[in-house]
Amino acid sequence: MRLVIFGLTVSSSWGNGHATLWRGLCNALAETGHSITFFEKDVPYYRNHRDLTAPPNYRLELYSEWTEAESSARRTLEASDCAIVTSYCPDARAASDLVLDDPKLCSVFYDLDTPVTLNSLSRNGDVDYIPTYGLGPFDLVLSYTGGKALDELSSKLGARRIAPLYGSVDPATHKRVAPQASFASDFSYLGTYAPDRQPQVEELFLKPAGQLSSKKFCLGGAMYPPDFPWTQNTYFVRHLAPSEHPAFYSSSRLTLNVTRTAMAQMGYCPSGRLFEAAACGTPIVSDWWDGIDRFFEPGREILIAGSSEDAIRAINLPDGELEHLSSASQQRVLAEH
């Protein structure tokens, strides 16, 4: 199959969850004989933090403006079988028009940010990466979030054929590796700063750090403000490239997953970080959201925390119990995700 993708970014993993997912999917598709071209607008933010320039298994087309890319995109589509437009693609509307103009193409819209899309639609009546005519003309609409989100994509945006395509992990990238002293911790958290996630980060990560002064806490991610409430035993690692995630997780005795508010309210929203940590054999503590038990069994494959007390109890569990948990979650994610 010859596939074209119009997305946010695959060239920079800085401050987004799209790039890592697309790298894994594109590599896997290419290895099974499919041809992929990824069109990405060359915006300054990702250009300044680019950590992939020449993918070995698929073609990356960087462009400055849509007017510059349109003719190349049209030629590529003419020789293709299927095209995917994604959420937050800067030129999603123009790309959608081009894709839907070719009746021989299988047309797909993949919303990797469904709760944000639906919230924005409810508040503003419009989403800049959704065509003004909605999602009805697409042959297939994929959603990173399942559950009731699928019904709302149909009722509010006219999607006709919908399926969840949850996050996934690339086992060639995310696996147990030798720990690194610079990442060593009793409890870790890896995630980009987000204001709506901050209350949970403070409750489940910073409060325990304040009460367990003899333990080492390590936080990795981008865009944290200067006034972030660090504790003396909390260590910060600035943005990590995907290639460094395995070492980060493999150096953590236990790691935390925190879900953004809109996603948690929608449910059925497993973060890619969940699958990455599990694939690396690291035991996970997570906040609760509807559907999490469809991906990992609480108490056997994952620990659930709703308060700092819950997090502290998890941190104080014996090594053997945590090892059983991490082994079970690793087997589950490698079998299913």
General description of the model:
By secondary structure, the protein is α/β, with parallel strands linked by helices. Helix 1 (18-31) links the parallel strand 1 and strand 2. It has helices at 18-31, 44-47, 66-78, 92-100, 114-124, 148-157, 198-211, 245-250, 261-266, 272-279, 308-315, 319-336; strands spanning 2-7, 35-41, 59-63, 82-86, 106-111, 140-143, 162-164, 187-190, 217-221, 234-238, 255-257, 284-286, 303-304. The chain has a seven-stranded parallel beta sheet with strand order 3-2-1-4-5-6-7, sandwiched between helices. A six-stranded parallel beta sheet has the order 10-9-8-11-12-13, sandwiched between helices. The model has no long low-confidence stretch (mean pLDDT 95). It folds into two domains: 2-164, Rossmann fold (3-Layer(aba) Sandwich), CATH 3.40.50; 181-336, Rossmann fold (3-Layer(aba) Sandwich), CATH 3.40.50. The protein starts with a strand and ends with a helix. The protein is built from twelve helices and 13 strands.
The total of beta strands comes to 13
Q: What name goes with the CATH superfamily of the largest domain? A: Glycogen Phosphorylase B
Query: Count the helices. How many?
Result: 12
CATH topology of the largest domain: Rossmann fold
CATH class membership of the largest domain: Alpha Beta
Rg measurement, Å? 20 Å
Which class of secondary structure composition applies to the elements? Answer: alpha/beta
Strand adjacency order, main sheet: 3-2-1-4-5-6-7
Name the shape in a single word.
globular
Second-tier CATH architecture of the largest domain: 3-Layer(aba) Sandwich
Whole-number tally of structural domains: 2
Helix percentage range: 25-40%
Cα(first) to Cα(last) distance is 22 Å
How much of the residues is beta strand, in percent? 15-25%
Largest sheet: 7 strands, parallel
